[in-house]
Design goal:
The complex is a heterodimer of chains A (238) and B (159). By secondary structure, chain A is of the alpha+beta class. Helices cover 27% and strands 34% of the residues of chain A. Chain A has helices at residues 2-19, 22-49, 56-74, and strands at 80-84, 87-97, 105-108, 121-124, 128-136, 141-145, 152-157, 162-167, 173-178, 188-191, 201-209, 216-223, 232-236. Chain A has a 6-stranded antiparallel beta barrel with strand order 2-3-6-5-4-13. Chain A has a 6-stranded antiparallel beta barrel with strand order 7-8-9-12-11-10. The model of chain A has no long low-confidence stretch (mean pLDDT 81). Chain B has 159 residues and is mainly alpha-helical. Chain B has one domain. Chain B has 7 helices and no strands. Chain B has helices at 7-24, 38-47, 53-67, 75-90, 98-117, 119-124, 126-152. The two termini of chain B are 13 Å apart. The chains are: A alpha+beta (238), B mainly alpha (159).
Amino acid sequence: MKARIVFIVLAVAVLVFLADQTLVAVKSYSSHNFALLLEPAFAFFSSFVKSTEESPEILDLRRENELLKAQILALENFPRLEQNGGSVRLTAKIYSTYPFNNRGLVSINAGASSGVVQGMAVTIQDYFLLGYVAEAKDRYSLVRTVFDSGWELPVKIGDDAVDALFVGGREPKLTLITEDKEIEAGQVVYSASKDFPYGLKIGEIKEVFDGQNFAFKEASLNTAYPFSVLSDAAVVIR
Amino acid sequence: MKEKLSWQMIGAAFILVAAAGLIQNTDTLNAFGIKPNLALAVLVALAFFITTLFVYSALVLTAVAFLRFEGGFELSTLVFAIVAFLVFWLCEKLPGKNFINNILSIGLATLVFYLAADPAFFINDTISVIKEGVYNIIIGSAVFALASAFVYGKKRAQF
């Protein structure tokens, strides 16, 4: 009898624990800081496998990168509103990435209490589309990124604004490109959905697949940023 | 036959699982776009050493706590827990060397996890699942070797 009561109490405790979302924010914060803690160690070991010979351009980029890092450090980590022309953006830290490979979700440290609403566009450095707010909790939000499989978005390609359908995933691709339109590797791909600001860059065409038996072309895509290095995002408030 | 673990070793197992859960929420171990399922690899490897279901359940719950990504119930974390328990049950029944059993279990657990949690991903991106499986096996084997050295000592490592 006693064992049964203990079992029931434990089962209820586990259910409450699983249903409650308070710990998720704490976990995200802890993960973020743990990753920061590990960063120097990984950088130290990776320095052994990297080539020591670097071109002047790389060295310039590295210096510029260091400067940018210093500037970022000087800024507060809390979400803050920034006005750029007519648009207002809320900058936020990317705390946590979805733990499994099948979803391209991230959590950011800005939620409904900071004015974030479901559906808002999320960008990187203001001009690259990262995704949209899938869920706005009080203190954090979940962002569905362009790396989430199954996410489809109307886009345009290059100066000729060729229409295509962007399909998200770990390796995003473009589909439904009509056969008579000329596209080539290196052309810019940008958002053209009514749900997002027009013209946000998503990436560049990597390779075009022109199947003779199909009415449409397909293309693979190089995204504008590698997913693994993302640490900051901006929510487009208006 | 599993040996009874000391409290220090059980404590170390909890720290290992918690650290694995934390790292899995970051892109620290992202290699060529693939993140390992670190928590699953660690739990499967530890299943070959943990003797009691109660301790193992607590380890699984610890991992789930760190892997939860949103409030409420997530299918992925539920499947994760079920797969971890299945391995705990299976590891006693597998014939052959534990080191090989561990490799097989991790590979199988990775496949079953995606098949149950996200069949569409499994079908559309099977290559990624296989790559992750290999990555998980490498990490799980390292954890197994480490745990084996600690539990049985170098001379009696259960390979």
